[in-house]
Design brief:
This is Guanosine nucleotide diphosphate dissociation inhibitor. This protein is α/β, with parallel strands linked by helices and 455 residues long. It is built from twelve helices and 19 strands.
Length: 455
């Protein structure tokens, strides 16, 4: 094609799509894939020349170029090609919504998963394994003997609870009863409540205690169901080989199979609006692509988003597993807010060469939390202290934006930024909420059994 010819995908402004998706972050790629499967004509654009956006996976050379441009990569870290370093690392629940989305779309066929070795929690200055079985629970130092008996009664109730079967409700109306009241019914002490709420239900703070109990009970059930999904799992989490960068590319491949068009390296792309402020398409390099609505990450919608929080994250290179994790190749450690004198939890994520994300004999550890002070790096100290000797590390503070409106009136459906959690539950909840706002319907994720995903 001669340089003077317009890109045929734009056709001088005559080309029209059902939706234009801006940004190739994981959330945008999932939405693009889902809408393509639904039969919509999708144009997907990114200002970058790679997939993943804020949730990309980088090789060593790309990471150094991002944080230390012009500086050489230390040779002792190993070959560049061996690294796939997640900028926003997260594990997925084996029975969770992301796994169900992968099954719903058949994207799972593009991926290979490996179970995560362990889930841990900080308690009284030490990290303890979150029990993965009844026997582990009985041996765990997280609870005393009498507290374990009370907790077993609570867990038995939660595991048997079925929202559709009143016989399992034990006369509790969990849509009205607060979670604090349910804990009280079983006599659980403050330490157990903290462990359950933050390590099993994965709440980021204690606001849930004064809210209806049903969502938390279902979150605890999800943890248990994920843990029991496969025989011998030591945690409820899965993680793809070669890192999370495989996910957005797999959803992009899905969209392309259904006719979706992808265009990278469009740094000047902007949303177009009519006189009433409703999105009508996008413009790039003087060409316009019309659409019925636009979807994208917050970076493409100035004036339509607000700063919700800031996340500080450390990326650390290790030559050993994290101490006191039974030599785990992959692990999550949750530091509950009260244990470290904070308002929000801190998360440690660790993966290794066993997941094909770094060179042989190396581990990648990430420490993340919501910024609460004017010195974000200092806030990471409790998590970094758990890692042992660190070969090298990078610190990044990221702004987390959220949309001001739901998108129904201006046809701009905007995702939220990525929070500090080291699991995908909040990420997928945002995607499913966006899908419902766009289509007016819930995504049915019940058709396929998550056990079809091998780990």
């Amino acid at each position: 094609m001669a340089e003077s010819e317009p890109d045929p995908l734009w056709l001088g402004g005559a080309e029209s799509y059902d939706v234009v998706v801006l940004g190739t972050g994981l959330k945008e790629c999932i939405i693009s894939g889902l809408l393509s499967v639904d039969g919509l004509k999708v144009l997907h654009i990114d200002r970058n020349n790679y997939y993943g956006g804020a949730s990309a996976s980088l090789q060593l050379s790309q990471l150094w170029e991002k944080f230390r441009p012009g500086q050489p990569v230390p040779k002792e870290l190993g070959p560049n090609r061996d690294y796939n370093i997640d900028l926003v690392p997260k594990f997925m629940m084996a029975n969770g919504k992301l796994v169900r989305v992968l099954l719903h779309t058949d994207v799972v066929k593009y991926l290979e998963f490996k179970a995560v070795d362990g889930s841990y929690v900080l308690s009284k200055g030490k990290i303890h394994k979150v029990p993965a079985s009844d026997m582990e629970a009985l041996k765990s130092p997280l609870m005393g003997l009498f507290e374990k008996r009370r907790a077993m009664g609570f867990f038995k109730y939660v595991q048997s609870y079925n929202p559709e079967d009143p016989k399992t409700h034990n006369r509790y109306d969990l849509e009205r009863m607060t979670m604090a009241a349910l804990y009280k019914e079983y006599g659980l002490n403050e330490e157990t409540v903290e462990f359950v709420g933050h390590s099993l239900a994965l709440h980021r703070d204690d606001a849930y205690l004064s809210q209806p109990a049903l969502p938390t009970v279902m979150k605890i059930k999800l943890y248990h169901d994920s843990l029991s999904r496969y025989d011998g799992l030591n945690s409820p989490y899965l993680y793809p080989r070669y890192g999370l960068g495989e996910l957005p590319q797999s959803f992009a491949r899905l969209s392309a199979v259904y006719g979706g068009v992808y265009m990278l390296s469009k740094p000047d792309v902007e949303v177009m609006y009519d006189e009433s402020g409703v999105a009508t398409g996008v413009k790039s390099e003087g060409q316009v692509a019309k659409s019925k609505f636009v979807v994208g990450d917050p970076g493409y919608f100035p004036g339509k988003v607000r700063l919700a929080s800031k996340v500080v994250r450390a990326i650390a290179f290790l030559s050993h597993p994290i101490p006191d994790t039974n030599n785990a190749h992959s692990v999550q450690i949750i530091l509950p807010q009260k244990q470290i004198g904070r308002h929000s939890d801190m998360y440690v994520f660790c993966s290794s060469y066993a997941h094909n994300v770094c060179a042989n004999g190396k581990w990648l550890a990430f420490v993340s939390t919501t910024v609460e002070t004017a010195n974000p790096e200092a806030e990471l100290a409790p998590g970094l202290a758990l890692l042992g000797p660190i070969d090298d590390k990078f610190i990044e503070v990221q702004d987390v934006y959220e949309p001001i409106a739901d998108g129904r009136s201006d046809k701009c459906f905007i995702s939220k930024g990525y929070d500090a959690t080291s699991h995908f539950e909040t990420t997928v909840e945002d995607v499913l909420e966006m899908y419902k706002r766009i289509t007016g319907k819930d995504l049915d994720l019940t058709a396929k059994d998550p056990s079809a995903v091998e780990a």
